[in-house]
Amino acid sequence: MKNIVSKILSIMLVALALYSCTTDDADTVLNETATTALSASASDVVLLKENEGATALTLNWTEPDYGYNAIPKYSVYFDVAGNNFQNAVIKDAGNTLEYAVVTENLNTILQTLEIEPNTPTALDVKVVSTVGTSQVAAVSNIEALTVTGYANVLDLSTNWGLVGDATVNGWDGPDMPFYQTSEANVYVAYVTLKTGELKIRQDNSWDVNYGDTGADGTLEAGGDNIKVDAGTYKVTFNQGTLTYAIEAYTWGLVGDATPNGWDGPDTPLTYDPTSDQWRAIVALTAGEMKFRRNNDWAFNYGDTGNDGSLEDGGDNIPVTAGNYLVTLNLNDLTYTLEPIEKLWGLVGDATPNGWDGPDTLLSMDYAQEGVWYINGVSLTTGEMKFRANNDWGINYGDDGNDGNLEDGGANIPITAGNYNIVLDLSDDSNPMYTISAN
Q1: Could you give phi then psi for residue 273, rounded to 5 degrees?
Q2: Which of 2, 238, 247, 341 is most buried when burial is the number of CB atoms within 10 A of its CB?
């Protein structure tokens, strides 16, 4: 009798399970005709750099009827109008029904789509909803937008430069560049020179060149070479009055938070013409620092109030240990300390400090995110690699010696010489480098 009851119960449980499965399957059948309606907060968007941080565009869409209580994921597609989303920039919107994009992020989308700045461009935008790992549940209508972006970097370039054996490239050039200033026809170059001679010329050509006959600060077409002593200088050239001035000029960081302490020499800042600011990538320790000119206390800036604004002779600036991009803006007397996760450098027996380091630090290319470089580095015959933060935890080599980098890859062979090196990490999935003779 017990066996009979047991068998009956087993049959009932199996039947119930089968019924439940059938019912669940019926309840979870996906409505493949589900739709969603997309709308945009504006159809014509003009992006301005001064509005960075502010929302430029908000997209909203309706919740599709999937036929059951699904939790979908939404992706927003941006592409040039008429391109059928073949090269779309895709942004994850999670499971919300809204996507708000701030000014600088929308501008980055335009740059990724290789759209020229200050050019009104038609875009197509749509939302795609997925359920599960990849199944498309709904695709929205296409919203047509016109968006105008801006250049992320300044263009202060001119066709004037310095040439001569006092410059890094000698009399053959290319010339050391002059940059525009706020005053018309007045140009400035920030240069480190050797003891020697130089001239000012146009378009890297001798067709138009100026020297100083009489060494009186007045320029003459085809005039005498200008003699200089080794040093770091600000050279000002007034094309309107044909005058010039050369003055010792550096900006740097000093303090117990900096590599050389309060006695210096100061950690140098370099002029960044893409932002008209002074910058340095530097590892700082816990302590304090200030900005000063020409390694001299006669002119120094601190921050009284610790509010990001500088005052002449102001208070020391407190610093937490870490790697930073330090920026000094002399136009509005402000500064920033932006933490940098990785400082990239060269290591190996071909490099100045060998395999034990410290690594030869690369500079950040402020105009191209993810690009690092060094110009005129002297290497010996041997091998090298790229690594982050003077540590073997993250290092790149080149298994095929083909310019493509692999994590932990083979050492890169080097023949003795002076080189310009570029490390391109702008695409995380495809790190690359180039080495060219200087």
Answers
A1: -70, -10
A2: 238
